[in-house]
Structure formats: structure tokens, C-alpha cells
Amino acid sequence: MNDFKIPFSGRAHNYTDEEVKEVVNAMQTADTLTQGIYLERFQQKFCDYVGAQHAFALNNATAALELAAQLAQLNEGDEVIIPGHTYTSSAYPFLKNGASIVWADIDLNTRVISAETIERCITPKTRLIVVVHLYGYGADMPTIMELAQRHNLIVVEDAAQALGVEIKGQMAGTFGDFGVYSFHSHKNMSTLGEGGMLTVKDKQIANIIPMLRHNGHCSFNYEQKYYWTPAMGNVDLPELNGKPLFPNNFCLGEVECALGIKLLDRIDQINIEKRQRAMIFIDALADHLELEFHKVDSRRHNYHLLAARLTNGDRDYFMQKMAEKEKIQCVVQYYPLYRYDLYKKTGQSKAKCPNTDLFFDNMISFPFSHKLSDEQLEVIILATKRCLV
Amino acid sequence: MNDFKIPFSGRAHNYTDEEVKEVVNAMQTADTLTQGIYLERFQQKFCDYVGAQHAFALNNATAALELAAQLAQLNEGDEVIIPGHTYTSSAYPFLKNGASIVWADIDLNTRVISAETIERCITPKTRLIVVVHLYGYGADMPTIMELAQRHNLIVVEDAAQALGVEIKGQMAGTFGDFGVYSFHSHKNMSTLGEGGMLTVKDKQIANIIPMLRHNGHCSFNYEQKYYWTPAMGNVDLPELNGKPLFPNNFCLGEVECALGIKLLDRIDQINIEKRQRAMIFIDALADHLELEFHKVDSRRHNYHLLAARLTNGDRDYFMQKMAEKEKIQCVVQYYPLYRYDLYKKTGQSKAKCPNTDLFFDNMISFPFSHKLSDEQLEVIILATKRCLV
Predict the structure, then answer these.
(1) Is the pTM of this model over 0.90?
(2) Is A244 in contact with A225 (CB distance < 8 Å)?
(3) Fewer C-beta neighbours within 10 Å, C or N terminus of chain B?
(4) Phi, psi (5° rounding) for residue A163?
(5) A96 falls in which pLDDT band (50, 70, 90)?
(6) How many CA atoms lie within 13 A of B74 on its CB side?
(7) What is the largest CA-CA distance in chain A?
(8) Best mutation target, A95, A183, A194, A305, to test chain B (most B CBs within 10 A)
(9) A11 closest CB neighbour out of B31, B63, B332
(10) Cis peptide before B230 (omega within 30 of 0)
(11) Which ipTM did the prediction report?
(12) Testing the interface with A: which of B19, B32, B34, B67 to mutate, by most A Cβ within 10 A?
């Protein structure tokens, strides 16, 4: 089965000559290769781009979720509401930090959670909600924030797939207390395969993240007589609300940051191109009513992925024909988390998410990367038509 | 104080044209930018180079220490022996995992711990020793392993600074249960500023590290009917000795791995060149008996750093003259960990390490990177002579 004409690529986009040049330049000239000027510039430019107060570049988006889970200071027994239909990194850091999970169902049309599906999960123990802008579609944050504020809940916005997505004129990731972004190989913009960003609103939290990110390093809280006395710097245990937090090493290198700075100039264009092609794809298959897409021709969707639900017919038979006859590798994505062994073994298998189940069991994710040619896109469309008949 | 003629550089070496070309090639052609073929090749080549059974590339060496601490499955109250004179990442992951630390003193000549200084720290509660090959000098592993085996202790070898160092014909990092290596910006070989490797001996442990590294991903433990049923793969909770371990995301990107493969061809040469220059430096100052170096003209030392102890005279006065008059930035390194606020606040400030204290309070680390020119090296030597008078 490794002879796909069009595989589901592990990589979303190519690099321009200018981006390659920037990487080479940073390799050759950066004074330090980590925790230097490119990091600062990347974070500042990211803040400016999404409209965040504080942004911290990290080695990946899971690290951003780990930090959010740590900074939420959950207690044993606290409940966290998380979509059943999402990637595992959105969930397990909260389990690690002592919470138990209540799985929120998705809306069958948008494939993301809504104020309505979240509200059903709220109990007196609820402390936090993780909203995931899955597939690159921005969930209804204004309504969700209203609900969260009414119940005094922390909101983590997992915008790993939704960089540059706007919800009523505001960037995804900037509504909640924490915004999580990914520059992983699959994403619309990737910093050499791994990378992430955490944005926060609270200044007190922003102050301790550099220590949590970099092994507890900080300055001494007094003026040093010489730069080397009593040592070059301090290593401290950050505290929040009087409770200590252990540091980590979640640093992102300078070359990746230099590339990230450059890619921010192109992310809007990539998103536009992906959306335009998604429209072509969806429209070309409009007569096939049994294949249901989520069509959103606005900045609310960046079509990081292109997924459909087969509302009538045998999904597996379709997948099989696509793979074996057409040599096109479609995949299925976001196995309901409560079905995975990790969540079963940690007592998190209970869920009442009919839409999550229905969607996943009939979904098809097409091989839809930015680096596909127009010709390849056409090949997929024609093959899909043949396999639907 | 930012006008140094020779600053203590945050970066140890430059990249050759061939190394730059390799990075560009991986950027342009890698099929996926993470968890792909370069990772496998880097790990295999690393195993071949150091002579390890299993190697796992990670986002940094702290991640390797975090994994070692997790895999050691320590219990509350267990004691871990760690040198007082080392970088903080060698220590705090073990605190995080519930252990308390007993600080081992260094040998004043070698600046690393020995079987003798370790033995003094052993109690019935001791479970594990972290041996750090600090400055790039290989500690006496055969003797330490004998001691560890006698007391049934787990041995973590922190060879972050000692890649390519040989101890009686065997590579540093391959004696203990865990070997930790770093490719950080400061190190003799750096994968774009961040990167690390963990080597292990135990096959059962080796089997679960890929899951611990990558969000718990694994295959289903049965043959799938189609590649997509019931999902593309499983997410599981790894178990060791019947106890679960939470996964992490400690992945290193493909471009870094491609570069790492290339750098392994050059690490021996870099180590040789650093050692040769260290000999020149040490010999040039041989008449100044008050400046005590650790001179080892063999593969036992790679001179990642070049540190000396001022046995007679005022260290701070020397440092000040070097900085202000000569504009050369020496630094002091490895503040005894028990003096940092993090270790005070976690109850780990008790220590009986007179050599650690004596060495640190009189040490000077010269700006000694591989990318220094011969002329710059000569400038530092002459300045040192002037400041010692």
C-alpha cells in the first residue's frame, strides 16, 4: 500500500528561495543559536500579527498546552471540558496536571464545539475549557467567552490549526486566557517541522513563562556588583498565586525563529490559496450531495485540512476504492479521544458525543496540502467523482 | 559592559558549506519535516558512533534527562546523587519526579565526581546517580559502575558536554543505564541551537521511548483491516513494571536530524582541534602556577570548555581586569546548584561539598569556542598574562 500516486503528505508546504536564504543567513551569522534576537523578533511580530499582548515561542504546540495546563493550577478532581474530536495533545497535558476530562460534542456542521455543547458539560467542578479550532475553522468565541465568563472558567484556545483565522474580525487564539499555535510540519506554516507559540493575556503569567520555558533561568532580584557575582544569573522556582511551578526546557532555536519571522509574511497568502482551492474542490463535487463539506468562503476558515462526511454510502468502501483503484491516500482523522487506550486506561472513556462518533465514523480527510499542484487537485476531484458513483 | 573585544560566545562553532547545503537539501526535499527518515538515520549513525544499543533524538538534552527521570520510576523519598557542580538540567527533572537530592562533591583536579565522592553520599534510600562529564572530561566510569552495581543503583550519564570523549576506550555515555547528549548552541556539535539524544541499554525501555517522546503514538496491537480502521494509529499510555508513564512531545525536526548526521562526520575533528588549542593555551600559561588548569592530552577530554582555578590571588580582580581593561569576557560557570533559589525553595540547599565551593569561588571560564581564530586565542593568552601579573 506504499505506491500512492498522491500520498497524504506529512508536510504542508514548500519553502521559497527567500525563506531558504533566511535560514542559511541565520545559520551563518546568528551570534547564538538559541534564546537570542530572532526569538524576540519572532514573538513581537507574532504579537503584532494576531493582536496578542504576550507571545512565547516554544519547541512545539504540545509544550504550549503543557504550559497552559501547568499555569491553570488545576487541583485533583477539577473538570476540564475538551472536544472529543481533536488531537491528543489538546487533552493529555490536563490529565497529567490532575484534572479529569468531560468530553464536549462537536456541532455536526462546523465540526467544532459550541457554547451549546460546552454548556451541557458544565458542572460545579468545571474549571477550564479547551476550545479547538479544528481543521482551521474558528469556533464561535464571542458566545463561548460569554458562557465562560458567566461560569468563571479559564479558556484555552487551541488554534494550532488556525493561525490567521478571524472570528468576527478578531484572530483565533486571542479571545481566551491562553492561545496555542503550532508550526508543525503539517501546519499552514512550519518552522522546519517543529515549533509552537503560546499567547497569554495576564501580565503576571507572562512574567514567569520565560523561566518555565528555559530551566528556571532568571536574573537575580538585586543589582550584581559584577556580571559574574555571585553567578551569571539565578535559577528560581516560579510562583503563581503563592504556589510553585517546576520549570521545563521548551526552547525553540534561533534558525526556526528566523524562518518563522519570514513565514509570517506569507501565512495570509497561504491561507487564501488553500481556501480558494478548497472552494474549487467543494464546488466541483457539489452535485454529490452525499459528500458533505463545511463550506466557509471567508477568513473564518483557513482549510488547514479538507474533510468531508459521507452521509449516505459506505465510507470504508469509498476509502478502499480511492486507495486501491485510484492510488490516492485519503485518511481519517481525530479518532474520538475517549476511544484511545490512553484515555480508557486513565478512566476518561465515558462520553456522550453522538456527533463526534457519527462524524468520525463517516469522515474522509483528503490529501490537501499547499504544495499540491492544480493538476494533482484535479486528479483527486476526478477520482473522488468516480469512487462516489 | 557590552563592548567586549572577545565576548563569551553563545555559539560554539560555525557550519561548513557542506553542512549548510545539507540543511537546504532537507528543507527542500524532506517528505515530512518531522519523525521521518532523517530521524531514523541520525539515531542509527549515533548508535554506531558512540557504540550504543538504542538512541533517541530529542528536542534537547533536558528532555533526555526528563525521560531518564521518568523512566527511573522514583518514589517519594528516594534519594538521587547529583554533582553540586553542574548545570541545573542535570538535577531538577529528578526533583519533579519526587526524589530528593544528595549533592556529591567534585574532585578538585578533575572537576567531576568520583566513586569516592559518590560513595560518601550513599544511604539505604539511594536509587540513582547522575554522573556529569562536565567541561568535556570523562569521569571514571569503570570504578563508578562497579560501585553502582554493588549498591544496585541506576546510573544516568550526563554526557551533554562530552560527545566523542573516551574513557578507557569506551565512549562517555555508554557505561550507564541512560546516556544523555546535547546538541545545544554551546556544544561542540549543535543541531541549529537545540537538540539532544538519549541512549539506553534496556530493550523494554527502548520500546516505549518512541511513545513517551511523541504524544503516546503507537500502532494498534492487532493487524488493521484497512490502514484507517479503526483509526490511523493508537494513542496509548506506556507502562513500565506495571506502572503507567504519561507521554510528552519531545520530537526533534528532520532538518536538525539531517544536520546532525552530517556533523557526526566532523565531531572528532572539532574535538581534536579544541583539545590541541587547549594544550597551546595551557602550555602558554604554564609559568603562572597560580592558574590551575586540568590538562589532559587525550580523547578523555574534548575541552568543550576551558576553565581554570586561581589558587592564589583575587579571582574577581582578575575577571574585572580582563573585562574592563582587556575587553575579554570570561565567565564563571556552574554555580553550586544548592545555592540557587530553586534548590533552596525545594529544600535541597543542604550540601557538604567543599571542593565544589572552593572551585566555583575561584574559577574562570575563558571564552573558548571552536570558532575563535588563532589570533583571538593569542589575544586572550597575552591578556591573561598581563592580568595575572
Answers:
(1) yes
(2) no
(3) C
(4) -65, 130
(5) very high
(6) 27
(7) 79
(8) A194
(9) B31
(10) yes
(11) 0.97
(12) B34
